[in-house]
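User: two proteins, same treatment. go.

Assistant:
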Amino acid sequence: RTTGKGQYVVGRLLLGVPRGAQFFMALCGPVHVYHLAQEGSQHFHESQNGRSGLGASQITPIHFAQVDLHAGDVLALCSVLPPAWESLLNAEQRNFDLLRRDLPASTSDDLNAVLVRVQAGKGVLKILPGVVGTSEASTAAGKQEKVSPVALVGAEEFPAPVAAPDQPALVVPVSRVASEKPASRFSRLLSGESDEVLAPDGLAGLALDALAGPSPDGLTGSAPPELASEPAQAAGPAIPSGTDPAQTVRPARLITRPAGGKTRQVISRPGKGIPPPGVSSETPEIMRLTPQRKQQAFRGMAKWLRGVQVFTRTTSEKIKAFLPNLLPNLRDDEPRLTGVSMSFIAIVIPLLVVTAALTFYNRHGRAASYQENFDQAWAASVWASSQTHPAEVRVGWERTLYYLNIADDFQETDELEELRQRAQLALDNLDGILRLDFTPAIVGGLSTAVEVTRMAATNTDLYILDGAHGNVLRFYLGSLGYQADTQFECGPGLYDNGVRVGEIIDIAAAPRVNTLDATLIALDSTGTLLLCRPSPGAPTAVPLATPSLGWRGISGFALDISSGYLYVLDPPGNAVWYYAPDQFGGYSTLPVMFFGSQIPANMPAVIDMVTNGADLYLLYNDGHVSACTLLEFEGVPKRCSDPAQFMDNRPDRAPGGVITDAFFTHMTFADPPDQALYLFDPLAQAVYRFSPRPDSLILQGQFRAADEDRAKMLVSQATAMTISPNRYIFISVSGQGYYATDVP
């Protein structure tokens, strides 16, 4: 909620989901993700809009990205990046154990981060125990500073005796508390921030807890290596003459006693239940005596609890004895209630009371609640209409919709719908949204077993790539909508010319005029084209010539309608290969590498590619686009704008490498004469329209479903989008495809 005074609470969100060998990320706000792999590191961060985050607007500005994981990769996710972490994460030596130690040690901030190491396995998550982050300087200092047990406490009343040459010395342990003041009693004593003065017995017990058992702050300590390596019978230093033994702390020594089949090391002193060296006896435990003041406090607490118990029991007995006096006694001639009668009364009377209360609430309470929230919405709309700054106008209309949604739960009225349309129209004008009427496209819908990954369309046909089976489905336009062509063949198999086709990975509508009379061009992962025709025509398989460097992993292709050039995308190979058509309209010649000396960075992250005959555009999984020119000039190498700038002309927006409130997965060009570039956001089910330039993309607007269609279309996330030559927009949602015909 907002205060109406320009005050906001903005949150940060960082989610990560592994699926197989891929890691999907959702980032909102100035959060950071580092992916450290053998081939290099990647840094994901919303640097273009540092003010974005949860709660800033009605639309959650989530930025999505994904990376491919391999065994040995390291992921570092943090909400706030400490200054020293950037150099550690970007260093050439990125050993996981070193990072696990050095990252907590390099800062004293309150950390909110996750460090992950990827290993080959069955998807089991193993949470490693916490480690103490120590820098090299602190480690070196810990090795040099060796003091006696008394010096560990730092009490001025007990002078530390000088250790004998063969006497083992204790090492000051590093505090495991990351805050400014140590939390545990032992850590405060070590850091010198406590004014407590321990008696000699208390000191020996403290050293035992710290080095041989669980510490007060929940950590388990162990004896230092220096003590473990020395003999247990080392003699302690002598007590100076003239000193009262009761006021002198005797040095501790290390002894070993078996405990449950294992050897345990403890700290003790002569004269406290430990026999002298050479005497065979069972070593007693060193017990800590409870101070008398603490015992008195426990006795007082026990007396208080006993008094509360007696008071509660006495009060309960008196109430039980008093309640029967409130009920009238039955006369001798009055009938007594049976168990059935009492059960009937116990059920019917509460039902009657609840029914009467609900009836009153439905008649009066719901109407009052509706009117209260509608008045709040109306006041917010009046305030929004009086504002001039776009950010304040947006806040006002978003607040209007908020109260209208609450009022709609109590009552539906015409005035509510009218105000809702007014508020939605105002927000749409701020975001450049045009609402379209989407209708179901496929008669009878799609089967739940179909997984739509790609779509292509002509003026009369709709083609859907089923990613679950690797084949293509055809639907032709009829009187009631698009009907399925059950005899259509376009998928994996062995064809007449002896060419085997694998699972289809990408499709595109074929040119209207081609030598094979095909209506659809499909491509499999081995580089074989499949030219498909409507039934009863059979498809034709045409293998592409393999590049001299071979294929690393084909993910898609793009066809230039004007020139007939075919571009094949190979992200793992950092390559885009293009084929020139031969005299028969095929692609029998060897391909040519598209990029020259300049190859866009992070090519393995490319997820889609399109061309308009003049420029080639690459879409990355983080939402940015690279624009590469296709025109060649003598002496001028090909160049790419990476990233191409999004010119966002909406109020309170700025140009940048990404659209912060959108997540793009597909893009396509419309046919001439107006070759606009359309990018699809499946989460918002929005189609963004851009005017392409060689180095930038100018936002023209976006298309979304109308209010009456959103309820049925927003049931799940969309998966694919395409545009036909006659300007029909097709969107695939789980179990159905929708299309709009009135696209400008």
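Protein 2:
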Amino acid sequence: ETTKTADSDSQNVIFTVDGIQYDLINNYKNSTEIKYKSADAVIVSVTTKGDAEEGVGCQKFFQGDTQPDTITYFTNTAAWITSEGFLEDYSATSALGDVTYSSSAADGATVDSEGSFFSGFYIDGATYKISDLSMTLNGYGGDDFQGWGAGIVATNGSNVTVDKAYIDTKGVIRTAIWAGGESSTLAVTNSVIVGHNDDDATPYSDDDNYAVPMMEHVPFALGLVGNIRATNVLGSASASYTDSIIVCNSWGTLSTDSGTAGTKALDCSGVLSGIGDLEVADSSTDYTATKTVNGVKYGFTIATLGERSGYVTYADSGVYDIFEDVDFYAPDYIGIIASSSSLIHMKKDCYGYSERIGFLIHQNQGTENSGYSGYSGGLYVNDGKYDVADTFVVIKGGLINGSYTTTNVIVDGAEINLFGTHNYSGNLLRLMDSDDAGSPGTTTYTISDYTEAQYIANSPEKDVDDVVATFSNMTVDGDIYNTVYSVSQGLDVTLDTVTIDGIISSAYQTHVDADGSSDGVNGKELSAYTSGDHLYIGRVTSTPFEDDDYANPVYLTLVNSTWNVSGTSYLSKLTFDSSSTINGIITVDGETVTDADDYEGLIIVKAK
């Protein structure tokens, strides 16, 4: 039996067997002595502690243990690289496998971790290249706001390239790739990244933490469940993914969080990404999609709605995400656009599929994005194809966590197929009164719907800037609604060279169950801990209604377009030119009109 002793203030102890890292002691608890049976395959590394990042508010990191309000994360890693080079004293190189490494590159590393809070590469302020990496991580990640326990960490101005990597992680917030700090860049090519939710994990904290700075679960407010993000970009960092696959079976694949306004957080091309499962393709199996990376054909199967949950990509805090020639698949959302001037731009040759909603926009201000010239906060789609069950774009209007959503939507030349068959399906665009459950830590929400009579009598005190949406050069079958209640907020829609079949109207919203029934739904208290409750969030029907003093007006402009009216619609403004056709009966304040012109008042458009 061999004994090693470490200085708890300055050293970590890392244990590997045949190159695989295991939790022999808990470095977080500052154990100082380890006893083990010696063998050639067993290596115990005593490494120098480096206080990589600080976390705040992680009071109950292990169930039943009370921790201080502020803790320091002492990173355990196979390789620690800074601007001074490869820090051997800080690195457990026995966990790198048979690898050639230096202060600038590592080629052929194999990192296998069966323990928690252990990283493969921690790169701090350095330029580094990782090639031909194989990494498997199985165990808890500590904090994906700080990168604690992530497979590859690029922070504090690092410039990292990753080529021909295969990274597979499983565990609560055990992020595969993490980029953060000041102006770090991370470029990933020809790689496969897979993240797995851990359904059997014991929560770190007594309340199964949903709140920053150490979210063990996706915020319930988003109408999602899950406990892992495959990748994450924070601060003013930027990550690009090219000719790669990024898959996670819950929560998120291409995520951002707490970014710096004006930063290009994500730039992806030639990428297959989604919520579901990935395997080496079997010729006898039908997959949702396949893609070949590094000569290997992989098969992806989308997660089943209700069994798994998540989004493909996310933009918040004023960052912007750019995608070209990507294929995205999700049970819940293709993308989420959140606070400040954040935006997502789906450029040419993109495909998106969702079993619920294409894009969710909330807390977005629609202001100019300082880093993306000519663009403001919101969603931009250029051509491509999108198959979405219920609603292509949902915008949560009104007050959300102290802010108002006044975003932009511009869609040009896209093919949009709304394939759902429920009464809450078939929506091209919906500006709705927010049912955001609240701040990230909120785990309950009570559905509160209003009747038609309440909508008609409603006189909100707050006027909010309009949401502006433009659709051009497309043919689509879908409805457009404004169902905002809590504030007075218009929806300003322009159709330019568009043929649309549907209803375009002010309306009131009603939450429904999966079968489309509203019975017993109003007043229902939803909980993050009750299976399926997250699916109620954002699932509403819309009923057009007549009101001569709209708090939720719709302003519609048609340019060289055709509107085939499928049901009675109520507008506050209508403009159409002589090259446009409205196949419906139009009345303005009770008078029938037919000529192209600008109209304002109580406008009712009925199907012929």
